[in-house]
Structure formats: structure tokens, C-alpha cells
From TrEMBL:
Family: Belongs to the PrpD family.
Pfam families: MmgE_PrpD_C (PF19305), MmgE_PrpD_N (PF03972)
Segments forming domain MmgE/PrpD C-terminal: 274-420
InterPro entries according to UniProt: MmgE/PrpD_sf, MmgE/PrpD_sf_1, MmgE/PrpD_sf_2, MmgE_PrpD, MmgE_PrpD_C, MmgE_PrpD_N
Annotated MmgE/PrpD N-terminal domain residues: 9-244
Domain of life: Bacteria
GO terms for MF: lyase activity
Listed PANTHER family: 2-METHYLCITRATE DEHYDRATASE, 2-METHYLCITRATE DEHYDRATASE-RELATED
Protein name per its UniProtKB record: 2-methylcitrate dehydratase PrpD
């Protein structure tokens, strides 16, 4: 083939150029944190309807890959499907800003399954994660804003492309096979925001990991795809899923692909403090602070006005939720729960908690609107109109748990312990966390074995 390399070829060149043993201690630790968080959130969803449905679906599947919310195993592709969905259903998994979505649930179910199948250690997995994260963020910076606004679930569309690059790196695919695997991933890239608040949203995340493994396996077996699958002018991913200008934007982003310090450092990972859509988190922080400072209860507040930057409320589809899944995408519920309970925890999203009369009565008293200014920097502000006639107002750009204001390891372990407790593994938190943080030179499969009693 002549002419300038396509986007898929440039990404493939990067994937095969990264030394699989080159992940430094900072990268290994960052990926260990990401895995511990993602795995714990899946454990917390043990017994969820999504877990039950998909575990039943793969019953009879055999293979070396662990099912995280239980003691079973399955083929890598089936394990990625189940683990990706179960790890996403609580909407408690990590986020990165460029993606407008969840990087680790796109990357880790496929990567961990592949590592278990190949015997890879934590350092090898960490290098592959960094490769996938880099690719994902470059693609996202080129197209995610418009892509997401059109209704695509960027975690599972752009995320699939990053996961395919990551698994290709872990398994040692050659350059042309990586290029073809990306084209095969484009053939499967799907997921809609219309499914937010339903089980299908988490299924989309599981399908993403399964598709990444499938794409790599088929490319390794010799199946080919169009080199222009990403940036082709007629029917490439960017043109179909975004705007004609996105190809030029990606060309510029790929000029810095792999340059130090890399996207894992510059974009970073945001760990979620609360188990619902990230678009609510700044508001919850503000409300919990005001509640504590002024001794407020829900009865003290007549109504709440909330505003955010343009695009900041796009995922929040449910203003009158009646189920836990719907409540995870409701600013109105987030406000009511924070003011009533003084916390927003996993138990807040049990259906009976969402349907409490005092919660349902307050939902119409919350308005949430977007500003018409620029989408960045992201911010939130709240105005509380109190029963005594006074008002309280506060605004923030800070997001606690974000890459800029990260949780400490101890704070992360508090979240992990809460998740493990809900999943029936509470007494094993420290043992498992120690194994994960020490996984650099240990086979991933042996680390996962430490999760069990």
C-alpha cells in the first residue's frame, strides 16, 4: 500500500513499538489502583439481575478466565462479557474526562481475561493498559464531544478501539494484525446512550470487552479489515460516528501518540466517590458540604436550583426515577438523597430507597439546567431556597477523586472495603489489595485467586 499511513496503521505502529516490560512503578501502581477499583465494583454487584442473567447465559462455558462476581470461570470472551457488564451496572467504575466515559471497564475485563489465558504478570498487563488508554484518549480528544452528543455510548465505542489496541499489545500481535484488529473492532463498535438507566447500558460495556478479544483473535487467525476503517472518507468510523472534521483532529492527536509522559499521566483516571453518573458528583459534594456546615435536613429546603457547564448534564435522562438504575442517571434523585440521608452510598440505589415518599415528593423541587457558555472547564453550582426564606449558594470546579484531586490509597481502600462488604468478601479486602499492589512480577491469574475465602 502506498501513500501516508492510515490512522489504524499509525496506531498499530505505536502498539508494536512499546516494550511490554517497560512499565515503570508509577504505571504499575496506577493500573493496580484502576483494577482494584474496577474489580471491587464488580464484586459489589454480585447477585445483581445483570450478574444473574449473564452468568446464566455463559453457563457451561469453560476456560481460564475468572468471573469476578463469584468463583466461576469461563472462556476469555465470555468472562469479559460478564465482568464488563457486572463491573459497570452500579455506575461506580472510574472515568476519564476526554472519553466522556469509563476507561477501565472498557480495558480491564478483556485485558485481565487475556492475561489469565497467557500467564501474563501485572507489569505486562500494566504496559498494555497504558497502550490502550493512550489510544483511547487520542481518539476521544478527536471526536468524543460530538460523538457523545449524537447519542453514542463512548465507553463502548471508542473504548472498544482502545481495548483492542491493549489486547493486541498484551498478546503480541504484529503490526498488520493490529491494524486489522482495529478494523474488525470498528465492525462491532456500538452502544447508545438511550439505554442509560437500563440493564442494556452495562451489557454494552461487557460486549465491548468481548468484541476486543474477538477482534484480536480473528486478526491473529488471518482475518483482514480495511486499513481506512477509522479515518476513511466514505464510511470510516470517524465520519460515520462523528463529523468530517474529526479525521483531521485525529491526525493532529496521533502526532503526539506515545509521547512522554502519556495520557495515563496527563488525562489520568478519576475514581468515583459515589455510585451514580459522574455528572452528579460535583453537585453532591456541594450539597453534602452545605448540609454539614449549616446542619440542614431535607425538611429545611423548599427547592434547589442546579446549573452546570454546557453538556454537563447530557447523561442525566431521568428526572422522575422509580428504580435504582434510573436513579443513577438523575440529578433530581442525587440532590434529594444527599439532602435527606447526608450520604450517597450503594444502598441508596436499592429500588425501595428510590421510591421512598419523601424522595419522590422532593424530585419536582429540583431544577437542573445547563449554561450556554463553553463546555470547559466543567463546573457545577447550587442554590438552595430554604424554608425560612433564606438562600445558600455555592459553585465549584473541583471534582474530588478526579485525577487532579485524587483519592489516596487509603481512601480508595475504604471504597473497596464497602464494595467487598456488599459482595460478601469484606474480610478479604486487605489480603486482596496487598496482592494487587504487589502484582508487578506475579501472574495475574495467581493474584485473582487471592480474592476467594
Amino acid at each position: 500500500m502506498s501513500g501516508a499511513p492510515t490512522a489504524s496503521e499509525r496506531i498499530a505502529d505505536h502498539v508494536v513499538s512499546v516494550d511490554p516490560a517497560a512499565a515503570g512503578e508509577e504505571t504499575v501502581h496506577a493500573v493496580a489502583r484502576a483494577f482494584l477499583d474496577t474489580f471491587a465494583v464488580a464484586v459489589a454487584a454480585t447477585g445483581d439481575a445483570v450478574d444473574v442473567a449473564l452468568t446464566g447465559y455463559v453457563a457451561g462455558s469453560t476456560g481460564p478466565a475468572s468471573l469476578w462476581a463469584g468463583a466461576g470461570s469461563a472462556s476469555p470472551e465470555h468472562a469479559a462479557l460478564v465482568n464488563g457488564a457486572v463491573g459497570h451496572v452500579l455506575d461506580y467504575d472510574d472515568v476519564t474526562s476526554p472519553l466522556r466515559g469509563h476507561p477501565s471497564i472498557a480495558l480491564l475485563p478483556a485485558l485481565v481475561a487475556a492475561a489469565e489465558a497467557t500467564g501474563a504478570d501485572g507489569r505486562r498487563l500494566s504496559a498494555a493498559y497504558a497502550v490502550g488508554f493512550e489510544v483511547m484518549c487520542k481518539l476521544a480528544k478527536a471526536c468524543a464531544l460530538d460523538h457523545y452528543a449524537r447519542g453514542w455510548h463512548s465507553t463502548t465505542t471508542i473504548g472498544l478501539l482502545g481495548a483492542t489496541a491493549a489486547v493486541g499489545h498484551l498478546t503480541g500481535l504484529g503490526r498488520d494484525a493490529v491494524r486489522d484488529a482495529l478494523g474488525l473492532a470498528v465492525a462491532q463498535a456500538a452502544g447508545t446512550r438511550q439505554n442509560f438507566g437500563t440493564m442494556a447500558k452495562s451489557f454494552q460495556a461487557g460486549a465491548c470487552g468481548a468484541a476486543a478479544l474477538r477482534s484480536v483473535a480473528l486478526a491473529a487467525a488471518g482475518m483482514t479489515a480495511a486499513p481506512e476503517a477509522l479515518d476513511g472518507g466514505t464510511g470510516g468510523f470517524l465520519r460515520l460516528y462523528s463529523t468530517p472534521e474529526a479525521a483531521a483532529a485525529l491526525d493532529a492527536e496521533l502526532a503526539t501518540l506515545g509521547q512522554s509522559p502519556g495520557e495515563l499521566v496527563t488525562s489520568g483516571i478519576d475514581v468515583k466517590k459515589y455510585p451514580l453518573c459522574y455528572a452528579t458528583h460535583r453537585t453532591i459534594d456541594l450539597l453534602l458540604d452545605l448540609r454539614a456546615e449549616h446542619g440542614l435536613t431535607l425538611a429545611d429546603v423548599e427547592r434547589v436550583e442546579m446549573r452546570a457547564n454546557r453538556g454537563g448534564l447530557a447523561p442525566l435522562l431521568h428526572d422522575r426515577p422509580s428504580t435504582g438504575l434510573e436513579a443513577k442517571f438523575s440529578m433530581q434523585f442525587a440532590v434529594a438523597a444527599a439532602l435527606l440521608d447526608g450520604e450517597v452510598k450503594l444502598r441508596s440505589f436499592d429500588d425501595e430507597q428510590v421510591r421512598r415518599p419523601e424522595i419522590q415528593r422532593f424530585l419536582p423541587q429540583v431544577t437542573a439546567t445547563e449554561d450556554d457558555g463553553p463546555p470547559f472547564p466543567r463546573w457545577a453550582e447550587v442554590t438552595l431556597h430554604l424554608a425560612d426564606g433564606s438562600t445558600l449558594h455555592r459553585r465549584t470546579t473541583v471534582l474530588r477523586g478526579s485525577a487532579d484531586t485524587p483519592l489516596s490509597d487509603d481512601e480508595l481502600l475504604e471504597k473497596v472495603a464497602d464494595c467487598f462488604g456488599r459482595g460478601g468478601l469484606g474480610e478479604h479486602t486487605s489480603t486482596f489489595a496487598d496482592a494487587v499492589f504487589g502484582w508487578a512480577d506475579q501472574p495475574v491469574r495467581s493474584v485473582l485467586a487471592r480474592r476467594l475465602p
